[in-house]
Design a protein that fits this description.
Elements: E1 6-10, H1 17-26, E2 30-35, E3 48-51, H2 57-63, E4 69-72, H3 82-92, E5 96-98, H4 117-132, E6 137-142, E7 145-146, H5 147-152, E8 157-158, E9 163-167, E10 174-177, H6 179-191, E11 199-202, E12 206-208, H7 210-220, E13 227-231, H8 233-245, H9 251-262, H10 277-280, H11 287-298
Parallel strand pairs: 1-2, 1-4, 2-3, 4-5, 5-6, 6-11, 7-10, 9-13
Antiparallel strand pairs: 8-9, 10-12
Helix pairs in contact: 1-6, 2-3, 7-11, 8-9
Keywords: NADP, Oxidoreductase
Domain NmrA-like: 5-216
Protein name: NmrA-like domain-containing protein
């Protein structure tokens, strides 16, 4: 039996947060959402909503009284500020902290000095230090790329216009998990709090490559002619890093760093050949499931 019963979620209005809140509520956890401002009807009636000042340890600690676990789903721009969440959690006696580090290669030491990843590394190192002192425990969830984004947004494929840019030839492998299953994986972590204590756990519904998806698309709809271009992740990464070095922190520049590392395959360990799916209760997709997802995007 898990010792975790009450869970607070920080950053619940972003891409990941709503799925985490729903999964926790469905699993009968006592859920509290921390928010800067309440929005009537934004959450299920069973979910408690508390207004907080994210810059104040005192405000957060007061809201976290009686909470067993704090799950952060804050956006990238607020990543480094999670140290305040950790301090507040410790002050309130929270047992477990899950940082907002949902991706495929965020824990790779090769990336710790890179923009975006450096903030995640600092937070991870901070909570690890606190855990070593016996003040709190932690779990990091590595979930691969969001399956929803891969098919709904023109990142790997532009299904609407039948265009694709093949990175490094298109055979780089990448783990991927849907947002609803990211939420379910969080539930799995908290239900198995002893087994996931102070660990990086990995979940992956499927390992994909661009060429694999393209072959499926061409097989399903041979009448569609795809416009195919190519690019090298190393060149795109250099563009992004050079841009940041020159003071350009715009989203297009940051996305070059994210995309070029996330799609670099085994260079940064983007595909998980070993996962914690069974422990977390995540079922892997079959080839037929993948074909169905592609077919839905083709229309």
């Amino acid at each position: 039996m898990s010792e975790i019963k009450s869970v607070a979620v920080a950053g619940a209005s972003g891409n990941v947060g709503p799925h985490v809140v729903k999964a926790l509520a469905d699993a009968q956890f006592q859920v509290t959402v921390l928010t800067r401002s309440k929005k009537p009807g934004a959450y299920d009636p069973s979910v408690k909503v508390i207004e907080v000042d994210y810059a104040s340890v005192e405000s957060l600690a007061a809201a976290l009284q009686g909470i067993d676990a704090l799950v952060s789903t804050v956006s990238g721009t607020a990543t480094e500020g999670q140290t305040i969440l950790i301090d507040a959690a410790i002050a309130a006696g929270v047992k477990r902290f899950i940082p907002s580090e949902y991706g495929n290669c965020t824990t790779n030491p090769k990336l710790e000095a890179f923009p975006v990843y450096s903030s995640m590394a600092k937070v991870r190192q901070y909570v690890q230090e606190k855990a070593e002192a016996g003040k709190i425990t932690w779990t990091v969830l590595a979930c691969g790329g969001f399956l929803d984004f891969l098919f709904a947004k023109p990142i790997l494929f532009n299904f609407a216009n039948h265009k694709v840019t093949l990175y490094d030839g298109g055979d780089n492998r990448m783990s991927s998990t849907s947002l609803p299953n990211v939420g379910k994986a969080i539930v799995g972590i908290l239900k198995n709090s002893a087994a996931t204590k102070n660990k990086i756990v990995r979940t992956s519904e499927i390992i994909v490559t661009q060429n694999k998806i393209l072959r499926i698309a061409q097989g399903l709809r041979p009448d569609i002619k795809w416009e195919i271009s190519t690019a090298q992740t190393s060149a795109i990464l250099k563009e992004g890093l050079d841009g940041v070095s020159a003071g350009d922190f715009s989203m297009p520049t940051i996305m070059k760093i994210i995309v070029s590392t996330a799609l670099a395959g085994d260079v940064y360990g983007c595909a998980y050949d070993e996962t914690d799916n069974e422990l977390l209760g995540i079922k892997e997709l079959t080839e037929e499931d993948l074909k169905r997802l592609v077919a839905e995007r083709l229309g």
